[in-house]
């Protein structure tokens, strides 16, 4: 495989990854588009070893996965074994449950996430937190993300900044990436455009985010994986992920 640091989260293609046959076809198309690495997210149930065979058959690697809080809490050992089979070294919490999106919940997860990350570190893996925009709401005078990153163990509680959602919440994606220098192996790249008066997701480089500043911040922060994501596509999702890859390469990423 190449030394590319661009990857694609399969969440963007989730409607095409709900059974083994569709997953195999989707991985083939992803490789043909030009991606060498993927992030597992929102996929249908497939035996880990079967999934690994599909990856090997296409020459694809897994840079990371998204997991739920329930998985971390209730199925930790099984999760670790699955990641061992896939060769995935990075785990990211996709989102906090609704009932934890408050001051007490952020305080709690800063501690719990640090403990989960400590266990993963002994196995040579990392745990990151993937944000949306709700974490930029203030609770007792502190934004949710501030609580998580200030109260979490700075050596273990890592970040996966999502550029669109930071902008959506009124933040500066490049500034947040720079803030997490040395503790951010993953970043989600998605762009924002105004369509019919509303904030809308679009392909990387087709919207209004400051990509030169974001990419510079990633370099400074030591980001390892630049992961393309688009929750909602205005065209065929496979076309969208191809556009994002092409634009990122034009911006100098490989």
Description:
Helix content is 42%, strand content 20%. It has a single domain, classed as Divalent-metal-dependent TIM barrel enzymes (TIM Barrel). With 254 residues, it is α/β, with parallel strands linked by helices. The two termini are 13 Å apart. The mean pLDDT is 97. It has helices at 20-33, 48-58, 69-74, 76-86, 103-121, 144-151, 163-168, 173-179, 211-221, 237-250; strands at 6-9, 37-40, 61-67, 90-93, 126-130, 138-139, 142-143, 157-162, 186-189, 191-195, 198-202, 225-228. The protein has an eight-stranded parallel barrel with strand order 1-2-3-4-5-8-9-12. Strands 6-7 form a two-stranded antiparallel ribbon. The protein has a two-stranded antiparallel sheet with strand order 10-11.
CATH architectural name: Alpha-Beta Barrel
**CATH-level-4 superfamily name:** Divalent-metal-dependent TIM barrel enzymes
State mean pLDDT (0 to 100 scale).
Answer: 97
Distance between the termini: 13 Å
Q: What is the fold named in CATH at topology level?
A: TIM Barrel
Number of helices: 10
Question: What coarse outline follows from CA principal-axis ratios?
Answer: globular
Strand content: 15-25%
Regions with little confidence, pLDDT below 50 for 5+ residues: none
What does the main sheet amount to? 8 strands, parallel, barrel
SS-derived structural category:
alpha/beta
Tally the beta strands: 12
Biggest sheet strand line-up: 1-2-3-4-5-8-9-12
The number of distinct structural domains comes to 1
Secondary-structure element pattern, one letter each: EHEHEHHEHEEEHEHHEEEHEH
């Amino acid at each position: 495989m190449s030394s590319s640091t661009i990857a694609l989260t399969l969440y963007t293609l989730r409607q095409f990854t709900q059974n083994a046959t569709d997953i195999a076809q989707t991985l083939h198309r992803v490789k043909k588009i030009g991606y060498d690495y993927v992030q597992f997210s929102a996929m249908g149930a497939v035996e880990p070893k079967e999934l690994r065979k599909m990856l090997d058959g296409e020459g694809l690697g897994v840079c990371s996965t998204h997991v739920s809080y329930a998985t971390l809490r209730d199925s930790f050992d099984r999760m670790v074994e699955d990641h061992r089979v896939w060769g995935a070294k990075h785990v990211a919490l996709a989102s906090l449950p609704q009932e934890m999106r408050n001051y007490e919940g952020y305080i709690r997860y800063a501690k719990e996430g640090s403990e989960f990350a400590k266990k993963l570190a002994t196995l040579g893996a990392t745990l990151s937190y993937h944000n949306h925009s709700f974490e930029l709401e203030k609770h007792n005078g502190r934004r949710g993300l501030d609580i998580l990153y200030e109260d979490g163990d700075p050596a273990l509680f890592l970040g996966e900044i999502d550029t669109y959602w930071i902008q959506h919440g009124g933040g500066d994606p490049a500034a947040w990436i720079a803030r997490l220098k040395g503790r951010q192996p993953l970043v989600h790249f998605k762009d924002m455009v105004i369509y019919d008066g509303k904030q809308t997701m679009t392909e990387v480089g087709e919207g209004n985010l400051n990509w030169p500043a974001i990419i510079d911040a990633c370099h400074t922060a030591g980001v390892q994986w630049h992961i393309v994501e688009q929750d909602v596509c205005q065209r065929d999702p496979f076309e969208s992920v191809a556009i994002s890859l092409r634009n990122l390469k034009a911006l100098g990423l490989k």
